[in-house]
Automatic annotation (TrEMBL):
It comes from the Bacteria. It comes from Shewanella baltica (strain OS155 / ATCC BAA-1091). Keywords: Electron transport, Heme, Iron, Metal-binding, Transport. This is Monoheme cytochrome c. GO terms for molecular function: electron transfer activity; heme binding; metal ion binding. Residues 25-104 form the Cytochrome c domain.
Length: 111
């Protein structure tokens, strides 16, 4: 019985190596998407003037990715954000999250 359990554990580990490819997010692809779709609301100039748009720069990757996934799944409701992420793949959401997580938070109070 013990050998069977060890064999099953080894088989499960092997199957995740073979079938469970992990996507490696790409910051450059994220930057292209952010420039095209996000910057008009989440860019520095707009954030300084319109406080309802949150600053995404420097936020943690996991937090940003979860929020984007939740918008796409309808778990977090905002018609504008849902429209922005509806056509993006989970990989593209990760790319955008990685890009913003690597940015330096701007000092928006210095004018």
């Amino acid at each position: 019985m013990k050998a069977l359990i060890i064999s099953l554990i080894a088989l499960c580990g092997l199957s995740t190596e073979v079938f469970g490819e992990v996507y490696q997010a790409d910051s450059e692809r994220g930057q292209a998407l952010a420039t095209a779709q996000c910057e008009s609301c989440h860019g520095n100039a707009v954030i300084a003037m319109a406080k309802q748009f949150p600053n995404l720069k420097g936020q943690k990757f996991a937090y940003l990715n979860k929020q984007l996934v939740d918008f796409k799944a309808g778990l977090r409701l905002d018609p504008l954000m849902q429209a922005q992420v509806s056509a993006l793949s989970s990989e593209q959401l990760q790319d955008v999250a990685l890009f913003y997580s690597q940015q330096v938070t701007p000092n928006l109070s210095a004018n």
